[in-house]
Write a structure and sequence with these properties.
Number of helices: 9
Number of strands: 3
Largest sheet: 3 strands, antiparallel
Radius of gyration: 38 Å
Distance between the termini: 71 Å
Structural class: mainly alpha
Shape: rod-shaped
């Protein structure tokens, strides 16, 4: 898998992990036990994930923002963002573990005693039922964020950036392996104010555009002075030889 495809596989996977945590945080995680229904026939108090672990939603939103940051950064900055995503995943896993424990649920029940009393219910502090489906979804999302963060920290610097494919190379820095120059590339160079016929690495006086004098005829003859017929029709003294054409 090349770097570009790897990046665009990572992005939706990481976003899906953060979205799963955000979704599960607003769902029912536990039901507090009640000795009877409320005065108005209300059921026992229900605790959501955010009600038990308040930092779940902020962590999920931070992970979503970090996905965009990975696209906008490169190099060491991308490694740092990947580390942040991995820490978000660890935080979610720790929150799910603590939020489904007896201590956290008992503390949540104590916080809801006033509401239960106002509803006319009779709460037993040791009576609660955990709905494990949504905590499991949150834990899965946290695990995805952890793995995605480690992947971004290790392999992220090799992924392409958001705008790298749109950057124009500077004049004279074209890759020789890119193939022949097309007509469109020549017009683009003219639009940038560059001379597409100039050789940025060579000097017109070095003989690449003719001989030392700039005359292609001099290069063909190998004679830097007179060209291909400089020595024809002359005697050793330099006078023309009559009768020769």
């Amino acid at each position: 898998m090349n770097a570009g495809r790897e990046l665009w596989t990572w992005v939706p996977a990481c976003a899906a992990g953060a979205g799963a945590v955000l979704l599960a945080a607003g769902r029912e995680w536990a039901v507090l036990g009640s000795g009877g229904a409320g005065a108005e026939g209300s059921g026992p108090p229900v605790l959501t994930g955010s009600g038990i672990v308040p930092f779940l939603s902020p962590v999920a939103l931070a992970a979503l923002a970090a996905v965009v940051a990975v696209l906008a950064t490169s190099g060491r900055a991308r490694r740092a963002v990947g580390a942040v995503i991995a820490l978000c995943g660890l935080g979610v896993l720790a929150g799910v573990r603590d939020g489904t424990g007896r201590g956290a649920l008992a503390a949540a029940m104590e916080a809801n005693l006033a509401r239960a009393a106002a509803a006319g219910g009779d709460i037993a502090l040791d009576a609660f039922a955990v709905r494990w489906a949504w905590p499991a979804v949150a834990a899965a999302g946290g695990l995805v964020l952890l793995v995605a963060g480690v992947a971004a920290a290790l392999r992220g610097p090799g992924w392409p950036g958001m705008s790298g494919r749109y950057d124009r190379p500077a004049p004279g820095t074209a890759d020789p392996a890119a193939g022949p120059v097309t007509e469109r590339a020549l017009w683009d160079a003219i639009d940038r104010g560059a001379d597409p016929t100039a050789d940025p690495a060579g000097d017109p006086a070095d003989g690449r555009f003719g001989g030392p004098s700039g005359d292609p005829a001099d290069e063909a003859s190998g004679d830097p002075v007179g060209g291909p017929s400089a020595g024809a029709g002359r005697d050793p003294a330099g006078e023309p030889v009559r009768g020769e054409r």
